[in-house]
Amino acid sequence: MIKLTGRKVVGGVIEGEALVTSQTISGWGGVNPMKGIITETRHELCGQSFKDKILICRGAKGSSGWSVAFHLARLAGVAPKGLIFNEMTTKIALGAVVMRIPAMTGFDQDPLVVIKTGDWVRLNADEGYVEIITKA
Amino acid sequence: MELTRNELAMLDGQKGLAIQKAMELLVKYGEALGAERLVDTSNVAGVPGQSSPFLHNYYKDYPGGKDVIFSHFDLDSDVVVDVPNTLVSSCHLQGGVDQAHPELFGVSAETAELYQNSENYAADHGIKILKTCTPYLAGNVPVRGEHCAWMESSAVIYCNAVLGAYTNTEGRESTSAAMITGKIPDWGLHKTENRYGSHRIDVEVSVKNVMDWGMLGYFSGKIVQEKIPVLNGNYSMPDLLCHKHFGAAAASSGGVEMYHVVGATPEAETLEMAFGPKKPVEIIKYGETERRQTYEDLNARARDPQVDYIMLGCPHYSLEQIRDVCRLLEGKKISVNCNLWIFTSRFVKQISDQKGYSEIIRQAGGVILTDSCSAIGQAIPEGTKVVALDSAKQTHYLPAIMGIEAWFGSMEDCIDAALTGRWNGKAP
Questions:
Q1: Which listed residue, A1, B29, B35, B225, has the most CB atoms within 10 A of its CB?
Q2: How close, in Å, is residue A45 to chain B by CA atoms?
Q3: What ipTM did this prediction achieve?
Q4: How far away is chain A from the Cα of B153, in angstroms, using its nearest Cα?
């Protein structure tokens, strides 16, 4: 079993299907927070849903409305279940907190390379590791 | 995180439930960032308590009256708190509608009332209702070294780079919590060592006006992404407006929150000072080719020279920009096929009214709007297919948000389009 160790951003333990992008994600103006879909036209995940996924991305970009977009997604019931990212910013840190989902960063291996979309992963933010349970 | 005795007392509930909930949020956020402590902030800019049809409906059965949205959404609290007045100087940034013209924003009277009620709520809690993305043009000008907590990427970059004050790009929840506690995580640009340049951009073509600086900003953001560009070379000293358009562009094509212009910005008297102990990770040229490529990028979605909408005021126009528009428009009429909307702050609008600028624009067939813009309000004149813009930032966002074509050029190009109904802009 492949295991990555990293740092807790928001605590908790969750299992789910990975949705991976090597790109950063825009909040306000880049997602539809009511539907849980990425809408940024130039994004490789454009049109895809992050609802109930473990979202794995390079980080956050764009408007300071990032946390609001993902906070609204939580209220609308379409937020991701977990969040894994490489680049720490105020946008993604605050977004992770208000989505209230387990989140991690700072891994010993690059999660964008090791984990593929469709993999089933366990994110244990409390103990600081991510496991790939089954490969897609 | 290491908290002071006073901060621990706030977190403990000794200063009331609202302060406790705000501190809980700030501590979670600080820990998420990996911050070691909080820093005192004296100047906060956000969108506290702002309602929307979605939030209004979502919370309509929650008990707690007027404090429901601020408690549950802004502070992310599971319980309603009695929200106190702000502790530190706080202002409200732009919103989704000009309450004097809800019809232009496609907003019902009922929704307009919702916005008005949340504005009243903020005002009642001591928040200055500036309703602008340019608080620094509406009386909120932080001083060098002041720790701020601001939202709005174009204001954040101006605050850091031009004023030399310290702020990260905050969000709604963190700014609302900061307004009542005077605290924000001590991370990122609050620390001197994170404010030095990363990339050197050698400017080899003449950069002198607002359009030139807007394009250079768009180029810089695309290259450095969220890092810190240092501009060096062939430019004339940028004025406030050049900085406003440079910063807004760099913060939208990339995620730039800080930049240096050697010889112009306060933390870059010299190239050495701009980089401090760091070495540039990359040296990039901005010459003829790069400038032409940037202009082409910005105009990539435009085909039809028949323009039906001219939007100015991203970021919100200054009084001087409105005056310059008036000089070009006075005694003339815009094309019957065009709408001209100019966005600014209430503050600048008031002076424009006094000086007769608003009337000149009205007589020419245009309108000055406040509080919002086409992108934030998702509002364009009915039937718009092609817009003309003088803002690289708005050009980045508006076509994608509204599904229209956009031409980018100078303010003069835009006014020419308003008068003739055609885009005649040329690459510099």
A1: B29
A2: 16
A3: 0.98
A4: 6
